[in-house]
Amino acid sequence: MTVGEKIKYRRKTIGITQNRLAELTGIHPVSIRKYETDKMIPGQEHLNRIADALSTSANALADTVDYKIRLETDGDVAGLLITLNKRGVIQLVGERDSTGRITDESFRIVLDEKLEKLFHIEYPEAENLTGTEELRITICPVYDTIKESLIKWEYNNYLYQTALELYGDDPDKETQKQLSELKTVVEQSELALTNRPFLFDGGIKPNPDY
Fold first, then answer.
1. CB 157 within 8 A of CB 92
2. Mean per-residue pLDDT for 128-134?
3. CA-CA-CA-CA torsion for 13, 16, 18, 19, nearest 10 degrees?
């Protein structure tokens, strides 16, 4: 999905008109229409305003490194981690249940091995290390909303990537159509899961703006 398609999808999901989005953001309605039809690409400030109005993450709307990263809400953090996963910076790993979903208790984040070499990691009881330990980053219980978002998104993406690996080279038009639809589901779920109901400031607090 393009930036414009994501804006339009999210706007319709929460049930507001283009004019209402314009009112909420202070952006001219003509610009909103041009953004949604990809005739114009919103700049950083406008993208942030639109994300705020749509109660989602600017990272999820943009899906590009051309925009600066904000870490103001739990949705921003979830959006960033999803972006990092898609870029190969981190991996979302763990044991999968019978449906292929990573279990809550086994979920963890693993840094790309190249990045891992850039950090000095101190382990407790370092003298007992064998040198084969894997760097693991877990999420504090207070941020379970972020963890849940990541697990749900990873599951949808896992299904898509599995189907892509199996049928990506299939020339059948109907198969490619289904793959495209599945990809759209992943992108739509990302927008839904990176909604921004809480401020991310070292604790979970309701955002008074929503």
1. no
2. 58
3. -170
